[in-house]
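User: Hey, quick favor. My workstation is busy. Could you predict this chain's structure for me?
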Amino acid sequence: MDFGLTDDQREFKALCREFATEVIRPVAAKHDAEESTPWGVIQAAREWGLDGIDHLQRLGSDPDGQFSVIYAEELHWGCAGIALAISGSTLAAAGLAASGTPEQIARWVPECFGSGDEINLGAYAVTEPQAGSDVKSLRTTAKRDGDEWVLNGTKVFITNGGIADVHVIVATVDPDLGHRGQASFVVPKGTPGLRQGKKESKLGIRASHTAEVILDDCRIPLENLLGGMDKLERKLERARSGQSSGRASNALATFELTRPVVGASAIGIARAAYEWTLGHLDGGAVQDPLADLLDQSSTAGRSAHERQGIQQPLADIATEIEGARLLIQRASWMGRNGIPMTGGQGSMSKLKGGDVAMWATRTCMDLVGPLAQTTQCPLEKWFRDAKIYQLFEGTAEIQRLVISRMQVAEYRERLTGAADIASQAIAGSRTANGRGPAPGPAEPQPDGVASVDEPAVAVS
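Assistant: No problem, here it is.
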């Protein structure tokens, strides 16, 4: 087992850090204050090879799955809002990849980025006023009308919403079937009936455009249904007959794969706050005029880094960042190599990253003191940016719910497997000893005790 980065990964990390240092950080405060989209930085990212189809292919070429989390951490170390403005289109591309046919992926993924000097954006629209993490409660509808689909509804808090060149819309085809009655649709920019609603003024990530997407009798061709009609009809038929699909919704599947990237993004903010605080505290303390008269054990006159009250929280921050990064790296490796995250590893990485970012920035502010709450101190911005990572793509509470359910399901599966092995061993022993077949069914379980045959908890 090798925990070190490869030469290619280290080289890519250095490139991302250089871009964040030279291009992102000098304009971060400006775009945060103005809540403006950093088009110049997005263009520069394309020129540096950190945006676009070629970049997306590079992320996918890493067999360890580490390029994507390295990219997210380093760019968010520069500025979370600008990093999201650059990378926001990848969520739409992930939605296309999760649901689309090869032909649809080949056509629409490039449209999410543009080519050459052309800068395009993509948007993945799931959240609604009454439905965030609870995707089965979506009310945006898609109804077939001849050779077209007609979409109606409102999406909220959509990254690149309304300004994107490609919107991937998750809508309900059969409301009675919950998430199994949903499908994803491509709605290109300029389609009649598609418009931007209110643009949000946010606490943090202010350089990332977030807005409502309103669909009012929005008509799109039948072929804009991701996956095609045959796939949808088979899916609906299975749902209506009560057959298990064996998987969560496409939206949830997309989020589970992208959650390690969200966790890495949060860690970038935490690391930025930690590193700045280290440098700030290393400036030295004012010398106490009585220092020469005090015992050597006194902290008077010593630098902040030599005081245990400072050392303890700094050690905790460093440890939490390192621990969160390991969870993130493992989940990203699992996703890249097709290893099922049956224990909720994707959700763990997002949960831990978001919680560490919020706690670390707050703890750094406590160490720095009143200066930290002024706009002259970068901790104030990092603190504002950190909060969203406990909220979007599944709140921290939802992540805990998902992890718990998946852990219970995994435990029950192991328990069932162990019972089967034990039964086979007993049967084999009885046969070998000439004692006849194994006894019949087990006695009923007492109230409150789960049977090994009890179905696993659903993860939807």
